[in-house]
Fold this sequence. Notes:
The chain is of the alpha+beta class. The chain has a single domain, classed as Aminopeptidase. Helices cover 28% and strands 32% of the residues. The protein is built from six helices and nine strands, in the order αβααβββαβαβαβββ. It has helices at 4-14, 28-31, 37-40, 84-95, 110-115, 127-132; strands at 17-20, 48-52, 56-62, 68-75, 100-106, 119-124, 136-138, 141-143, 146-152. The strands form two sheets. It has a seven-stranded mixed beta sheet with strand order 1-2-3-4-5-9-6. β4, α4 and β5 form a beta-alpha-beta unit. The longest helix has 12 residues, at 84-95. The termini are far apart. One of its GO terms (molecular function) is acyltransferase activity, transferring groups other than amino-acyl groups. Keywords: Transferase. Pfam families: Acetyltransf_7.
Amino acid sequence: MQSETDMKSVEREMMELKLIAEHKQDFLPLLALADSPKFIKNYLERGELYVFEDKAVALVTKEEDGSYEIQNFAVAVSFQGRGFGKIFMLELCRKYSGQTLLVRTDEYTAKFYEKCGFTAFKRVKNYFPEKYGERIFDKSRELIDNIYLKVELT
């Protein structure tokens, strides 16, 4: 009989990070959990789209300075808060080993990235109200400041 640790190891090995080259728009419903569709259009085709078990997505772009930026990271609502996002992020970080990964997010989601090893290095005050031209809420929390985080992957 397999131990719980062995079973988790097997489950983890079965989870697969897939690069999506075509029909990226098919994943708009998941991507829209993390950003407005009008903004997703600005980066959808220029980035690498990864899907994790068809329950999570990440879109990563290569920036001019050679770093990579996570433009979008979303987990299906029914899988949030269960460790799925962290496993996905660890797999994504493994994919970009040897690189610098950046992300810009709200002050609430920044805590998730910090748990994944990212460090905050910049805060832009009133970013969300100014960018979207209206008050933006996520799970009844108003989004105001934009937090920049990064991780140097070895």
